[in-house]
Amino acid sequence: MSKKGKVLVAMSGGIDSTVAALMLHKEGYEVVGITMKTWDYATSVGVTGKKETGCCNLDSFNDARAAAVEHGFPHFILDIREEFGDFVIENFVDEYLAGRTPNPCVMCNTHIKWRALLKRADAMDCEFIATGHYATVHQHSNGRYFVRKGIDETKDQSYVLWGLQQDLLKRTLLPLGGFRKTAIRQMAHDFGYPELAKKNESYEICFVPDNDYRGFLKRRVDGLEEKVDGGLFTDKNGKILGKHKGYPFYTIGQRKGLDIALGKPAFVTGIDPDANIVVLGEEEDLNRQEMLVTKLNWLKYEGITEGMEATTKIRYKDKGALSNLLIHENGVQVRFYEEVKGVAPGQSAVFYEGDDVIGGGIIQRPALPTTI
Question: From the candidates 55, 56, 105, 108, which is the catalytic residue?
Answer without folding.
Answer: 108
